[in-house]
Amino acid sequence: MESELRRVAGIVLGAPLSRRTRRELLYCIFGGLAGVAGFVVTLVLLTSGFTVSASVIGTVVGLLLITVGLRVSRRLGSLHRRLLRRFLGRQVEAPPRFQPGTGVLGRLDRRLRDRAAWRGVWYSLIKLPVAAVQLYVVTLTIFGVVDITYPLDWLLFRNHSAGANLSPLVAIVPLPFVGNIDISSWLGTYPAALAGALCVVIAAWLARGINAADHALVRGLLGPSTMAERVSELERTRTLAVEDSAAALRRVERDLHDGAQMRLAALAMNLGMAREKLDDADDATVRGLIDAAHRNAVDALADLRDLARGIHPPVLDNGLASALESLAASSAIPASVSASIGPRPAPAIETIAYFCAAELIANATKHSYANQITINISTERAGLLRLDVSDDGVGGADVTRGSGLSGLGQRVSTVDGRIDVSSPPGGPTVVTVVLPMKA
Question: I want to staple 111 with a disulfide (CB 3.0 to 4.6 A). Which of 67, 89, 382, 428 is the partner?
Answer without folding.
Answer: 67
